[in-house]
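Now read this:
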Amino acid sequence: MIDSHCHLADEKFRSDLPQVIARAKAAGVLGALVILEGGNASEAEQARQVEQLWPEARTSIGVHPHIAHEYAADPERAATVVRAALDSTPSARAVGEIGLDYHYDFSPRDVQERVFRAQLRLARERQLPVVIHTREAEDDTIAILREEGGGTLRGVLHCFTGSPDLARRAIELGFYVSLAGIVTFPKAIELRETARLVPLDRLLTETDSPFLAPVPHRGQRNEPALVAAVVATLAGDRGIPAADLAAHTTANYRALFAP
């Protein structure tokens, strides 16, 4: 199994990082993509610890839409900050998470868009895949990916909770769709139905830890070992062994991120 999106550099893992990684390995998690905030020195330092403890882990670096307002005066600076972080992080394999969030609107939407576009252009420049955050912004996200992608941009819509139409449009663009612990929640019936529509060769699994712990761990801190619950749920819904689904998602992760 692979945890294709986690935040192991978050301060919530600072006190027991070795134990968290040991549990992931014991659960059969072969690797993880650790998401870093561009320009965050504390996360960069903890990511170096992750690299030492888990050589199979890789990183993705970006400016999240929640903090896009910090670059309002110069949206291109977001790409400059991420570019510098990529250059100083040997394990970096992607740009992200980046995108649009119209649910919280912590940053003005026009600023979110400009910061998003700047980082997509950086990803094309570096020929790197992108990790996309989109919430209540489906049409604008797809439109910008089409406009800035140039027909070559690859990536994943992470922690997918969108509509079947969003999944279809993302797949048409050549993107992957990643499911997190939300898919295990009892009320996530529509999401599970949408997840079944995603072809096996476009499916990824993640925890988004420390957030969104799956059933039966809801309310607890999430961690990479618990990606097994996501795999089990998706496999059960498709009527295939969990090991088979894990093999597909692991191959997909390696194809996208070339770890």
Observations:
- The domain at 2-257 is CATH 3.20.20.140 (TIM Barrel).
